[in-house]
Amino acid sequence: MRLFLFIVSVGVIALLPCVEARAITLDEIVRRTLEAEKQNAKKLDGWRYRQDITVEKIDKGDTVKNTEKLTVWATCSTNITYQVSNDGVGSGTFVAGKMRQPTASEQKTVKTANIFKESFQLSDLAPRFLLERQPDESVRVGKEKFDSRCYVISFQPKPGVPTPASRKEKVINALQGKLWILQDSFTIAQMKSSLHHPVSLAWFMVTMKDLNLAFQSQRLPNQLLAPASINMSYTVRAGFSNIRQRQQIGMSQFSAP
Fold first, then answer.
1. Which strand (E) or helix (H) includes residue 249?
2. pLDDT-based confidence at residue 13 (cuts at 50, 70, 90)
3. pTM for the whole thing?
4. What's the Cα-to-Cα distance from 28 to each of 97, 99, 151, 187, 189, rounded to whole Å?
5. Alpha carbon of 217 to those of 31, 127, 203, 224: distances in Å?
Protein backbone atom coordinates (compact mmCIF):
# COMPACT_ATOMS: atom_id res chain seq x y z
CA MET A 1 0.00 0.00 0.00
CA ARG A 2 2.80 2.41 0.90
CA LEU A 3 4.56 1.57 -2.34
CA PHE A 4 1.36 2.29 -4.26
CA LEU A 5 0.91 5.67 -2.55
CA PHE A 6 4.54 6.54 -3.23
CA ILE A 7 4.16 5.76 -6.94
CA VAL A 8 0.97 7.81 -7.15
CA SER A 9 2.56 10.79 -5.35
CA VAL A 10 5.58 10.71 -7.68
CA GLY A 11 3.27 10.69 -10.68
CA VAL A 12 1.28 13.64 -9.36
CA ILE A 13 4.46 15.66 -8.71
CA ALA A 14 5.71 14.90 -12.23
CA LEU A 15 2.45 16.21 -13.68
CA LEU A 16 2.43 19.45 -11.68
CA PRO A 17 4.44 21.55 -14.22
CA CYS A 18 2.02 20.53 -16.99
CA VAL A 19 -1.01 21.32 -14.81
CA GLU A 20 0.41 24.72 -13.82
CA ALA A 21 1.30 25.57 -17.43
CA ARG A 22 -2.19 24.72 -18.62
CA ALA A 23 -3.88 26.50 -15.70
CA ILE A 24 -2.51 29.92 -16.64
CA THR A 25 -5.10 32.03 -18.43
CA LEU A 26 -4.81 33.50 -21.91
CA ASP A 27 -5.00 37.03 -20.51
CA GLU A 28 -2.11 36.28 -18.15
CA ILE A 29 0.01 34.83 -20.97
CA VAL A 30 -0.64 37.92 -23.09
CA ARG A 31 0.11 40.30 -20.20
CA ARG A 32 3.38 38.61 -19.28
CA THR A 33 4.45 38.25 -22.92
CA LEU A 34 3.87 41.95 -23.57
CA GLU A 35 5.97 42.78 -20.53
CA ALA A 36 8.77 40.37 -21.50
CA GLU A 37 8.70 41.62 -25.09
CA LYS A 38 9.19 45.19 -23.92
CA GLN A 39 12.06 44.25 -21.59
CA ASN A 40 13.77 42.09 -24.22
CA ALA A 41 13.62 44.90 -26.80
CA LYS A 42 15.06 47.35 -24.26
CA LYS A 43 18.00 45.03 -23.53
CA LEU A 44 18.67 44.52 -27.26
CA ASP A 45 18.67 48.25 -28.00
CA GLY A 46 21.87 49.24 -29.75
CA TRP A 47 22.96 45.70 -30.59
CA ARG A 48 24.40 45.20 -34.07
CA TYR A 49 23.69 42.13 -36.16
CA ARG A 50 24.02 40.78 -39.68
CA GLN A 51 21.12 40.33 -42.11
CA ASP A 52 21.54 38.04 -45.13
CA ILE A 53 18.69 38.85 -47.49
CA THR A 54 17.65 36.71 -50.46
CA VAL A 55 14.87 37.80 -52.82
CA GLU A 56 13.61 35.40 -55.48
CA LYS A 57 11.16 36.20 -58.26
CA ILE A 58 9.34 33.04 -59.29
CA ASP A 59 6.95 32.01 -62.05
CA LYS A 60 3.66 30.12 -61.75
CA GLY A 61 5.55 26.84 -61.96
CA ASP A 62 7.60 27.81 -58.87
CA THR A 63 10.72 28.20 -61.01
CA VAL A 64 13.12 30.93 -59.86
CA LYS A 65 13.48 33.56 -62.60
CA ASN A 66 15.74 35.98 -60.76
CA THR A 67 17.66 36.02 -57.47
CA GLU A 68 18.97 39.05 -55.59
CA LYS A 69 21.20 38.76 -52.51
CA LEU A 70 22.24 41.46 -50.10
CA THR A 71 24.14 41.43 -46.80
CA VAL A 72 23.62 44.38 -44.47
CA TRP A 73 24.46 45.18 -40.87
CA ALA A 74 21.53 46.40 -38.80
CA THR A 75 21.38 48.14 -35.43
CA CYS A 76 18.49 47.37 -33.08
CA SER A 77 16.60 50.52 -32.18
CA THR A 78 13.20 52.17 -32.57
CA ASN A 79 14.42 53.60 -35.88
CA ILE A 80 16.53 50.74 -37.17
CA THR A 81 19.57 51.66 -39.27
CA TYR A 82 21.50 49.65 -41.85
CA GLN A 83 25.05 49.67 -43.18
CA VAL A 84 26.78 47.89 -46.06
CA SER A 85 30.43 46.89 -46.27
CA ASN A 86 32.58 48.78 -48.78
CA ASP A 87 33.99 45.37 -49.71
CA GLY A 88 30.77 44.70 -51.59
CA VAL A 89 27.09 43.96 -50.94
CA GLY A 90 27.84 40.27 -50.46
CA SER A 91 30.51 40.78 -47.81
CA GLY A 92 29.70 39.46 -44.37
CA THR A 93 32.45 41.36 -42.62
CA PHE A 94 31.82 44.40 -40.43
CA VAL A 95 34.85 46.68 -40.28
CA ALA A 96 34.47 49.95 -38.40
CA GLY A 97 35.28 52.91 -40.63
CA LYS A 98 34.83 50.87 -43.80
CA MET A 99 31.04 50.83 -43.95
CA ARG A 100 28.66 52.90 -46.04
CA GLN A 101 24.97 53.67 -46.23
CA PRO A 102 22.91 51.46 -48.57
CA THR A 103 22.18 52.84 -52.02
CA ALA A 104 18.58 53.70 -52.95
CA SER A 105 18.19 50.30 -54.62
CA GLU A 106 19.64 48.47 -51.60
CA GLN A 107 17.43 50.46 -49.23
CA LYS A 108 14.38 49.40 -51.22
CA THR A 109 15.42 45.73 -50.97
CA VAL A 110 16.01 45.98 -47.22
CA LYS A 111 12.76 47.87 -46.59
CA THR A 112 10.70 45.40 -48.61
CA ALA A 113 12.28 42.37 -46.92
CA ASN A 114 11.66 43.83 -43.43
CA ILE A 115 8.23 45.29 -44.14
CA PHE A 116 6.30 42.95 -41.82
CA LYS A 117 8.98 42.60 -39.15
CA GLU A 118 7.02 44.41 -36.44
CA SER A 119 4.00 42.15 -37.06
CA PHE A 120 5.89 39.40 -35.21
CA GLN A 121 5.42 41.28 -31.93
CA LEU A 122 2.44 40.55 -29.72
CA SER A 123 2.11 44.26 -28.93
CA ASP A 124 1.22 44.78 -32.60
CA LEU A 125 -1.04 41.73 -32.88
CA ALA A 126 -3.03 41.76 -29.65
CA PRO A 127 -5.21 44.85 -30.24
CA ARG A 128 -6.38 43.84 -33.73
CA PHE A 129 -6.89 40.08 -33.56
CA LEU A 130 -9.04 37.48 -31.86
CA LEU A 131 -6.69 35.39 -29.73
CA GLU A 132 -7.38 31.81 -28.65
CA ARG A 133 -5.39 29.42 -26.46
CA GLN A 134 -4.31 26.18 -28.12
CA PRO A 135 -2.73 23.03 -26.60
CA ASP A 136 0.85 23.58 -25.47
CA GLU A 137 3.64 22.28 -27.72
CA SER A 138 7.41 21.79 -27.70
CA VAL A 139 9.53 23.51 -30.35
CA ARG A 140 13.23 23.90 -31.08
CA VAL A 141 14.63 27.41 -30.55
CA GLY A 142 17.43 28.26 -32.96
CA LYS A 143 20.17 25.64 -32.91
CA GLU A 144 19.51 24.40 -29.39
CA LYS A 145 19.83 20.66 -28.83
CA PHE A 146 16.53 20.23 -27.00
CA ASP A 147 12.95 21.38 -27.50
CA SER A 148 11.37 24.00 -25.23
CA ARG A 149 7.79 23.98 -23.98
CA CYS A 150 5.60 26.73 -25.40
CA TYR A 151 2.18 28.21 -24.94
CA VAL A 152 0.44 28.27 -28.32
CA ILE A 153 -1.92 31.09 -29.25
CA SER A 154 -3.85 31.26 -32.50
CA PHE A 155 -5.04 34.54 -33.96
CA GLN A 156 -7.43 35.65 -36.67
CA PRO A 157 -8.87 38.99 -37.84
CA LYS A 158 -11.14 40.70 -35.35
CA PRO A 159 -14.53 41.75 -36.80
CA GLY A 160 -15.28 45.46 -36.71
CA VAL A 161 -11.69 46.70 -36.77
CA PRO A 162 -11.60 49.90 -38.90
CA THR A 163 -9.99 49.46 -42.32
CA PRO A 164 -6.61 51.24 -42.26
CA ALA A 165 -5.49 53.55 -45.03
CA SER A 166 -2.05 52.03 -45.61
CA ARG A 167 -1.68 48.93 -47.76
CA LYS A 168 0.74 47.38 -45.27
CA GLU A 169 -1.73 47.71 -42.37
CA LYS A 170 -4.52 46.27 -44.51
CA VAL A 171 -2.43 43.15 -45.10
CA ILE A 172 -1.44 42.79 -41.43
CA ASN A 173 -5.10 43.07 -40.37
CA ALA A 174 -5.97 40.16 -42.68
CA LEU A 175 -3.45 37.71 -41.21
CA GLN A 176 -4.27 34.51 -39.37
CA GLY A 177 -1.85 32.13 -37.70
CA LYS A 178 -0.18 30.91 -34.51
CA LEU A 179 2.34 32.15 -31.97
CA TRP A 180 4.59 29.87 -29.91
CA ILE A 181 5.52 31.58 -26.61
CA LEU A 182 8.29 30.13 -24.44
CA GLN A 183 6.99 29.10 -21.04
CA ASP A 184 10.28 29.87 -19.30
CA SER A 185 10.59 33.47 -20.49
CA PHE A 186 7.27 34.50 -22.11
CA THR A 187 9.06 35.52 -25.30
CA ILE A 188 8.01 34.51 -28.81
CA ALA A 189 9.89 31.49 -30.13
CA GLN A 190 8.20 31.40 -33.52
CA MET A 191 5.22 32.55 -35.51
CA LYS A 192 3.52 31.27 -38.64
CA SER A 193 0.80 33.15 -40.47
CA SER A 194 -1.03 33.45 -43.77
CA LEU A 195 -3.74 35.59 -45.32
CA HIS A 196 -7.24 34.98 -44.01
CA HIS A 197 -8.63 36.44 -47.24
CA PRO A 198 -7.31 38.32 -50.33
CA VAL A 199 -6.58 42.02 -49.74
CA SER A 200 -7.24 44.80 -52.24
CA LEU A 201 -4.20 47.08 -52.39
CA ALA A 202 -5.19 49.58 -55.08
CA TRP A 203 -8.84 49.54 -56.02
CA PHE A 204 -9.72 46.29 -57.77
CA MET A 205 -6.68 46.18 -60.07
CA VAL A 206 -4.06 45.16 -57.46
CA THR A 207 -4.82 42.41 -54.96
CA MET A 208 -2.63 40.40 -52.63
CA LYS A 209 -3.94 36.89 -53.27
CA ASP A 210 -1.82 35.00 -50.77
CA LEU A 211 0.92 35.63 -48.25
CA ASN A 212 2.83 33.24 -46.00
CA LEU A 213 5.04 34.48 -43.17
CA ALA A 214 7.27 32.49 -40.84
CA PHE A 215 9.39 33.91 -38.02
CA GLN A 216 11.97 32.07 -35.89
CA SER A 217 13.86 33.26 -32.81
CA GLN A 218 17.23 32.32 -31.39
CA ARG A 219 18.56 32.49 -27.85
CA LEU A 220 21.76 34.50 -27.44
CA PRO A 221 24.48 33.40 -24.97
CA ASN A 222 23.15 35.90 -22.40
CA GLN A 223 19.67 34.31 -22.73
CA LEU A 224 18.19 37.26 -24.62
CA LEU A 225 15.89 36.20 -27.43
CA ALA A 226 16.73 37.66 -30.84
CA PRO A 227 15.27 37.14 -34.33
CA ALA A 228 16.88 34.30 -36.30
CA SER A 229 14.97 34.22 -39.59
CA ILE A 230 12.02 35.65 -41.47
CA ASN A 231 10.63 33.82 -44.50
CA MET A 232 7.95 35.35 -46.69
CA SER A 233 6.25 34.35 -49.93
CA TYR A 234 3.40 36.11 -51.66
CA THR A 235 1.37 36.45 -54.84
CA VAL A 236 0.05 39.82 -55.98
CA ARG A 237 -2.48 40.11 -58.79
CA ALA A 238 -1.79 43.28 -60.81
CA GLY A 239 -4.18 43.74 -63.70
CA PHE A 240 -4.11 40.47 -65.64
CA SER A 241 -0.76 39.20 -64.36
CA ASN A 242 0.56 37.70 -61.13
CA ILE A 243 3.72 38.76 -59.31
CA ARG A 244 5.22 35.97 -57.20
CA GLN A 245 8.12 36.44 -54.85
CA ARG A 246 9.97 34.71 -52.01
CA GLN A 247 12.12 36.50 -49.46
CA GLN A 248 14.35 35.14 -46.73
CA ILE A 249 16.26 36.98 -44.04
CA GLY A 250 18.82 35.21 -41.90
CA MET A 251 20.02 37.08 -38.80
CA SER A 252 23.29 36.29 -37.04
CA GLN A 253 26.49 37.63 -35.42
CA PHE A 254 24.74 39.70 -32.74
CA SER A 255 27.11 41.94 -30.79
CA ALA A 256 26.47 44.27 -27.88
CA PRO A 257 27.08 48.04 -28.28
1. strand 241-255
2. very low
3. 0.83
4. 47, 44, 11, 13, 18
5. 20, 22, 36, 10
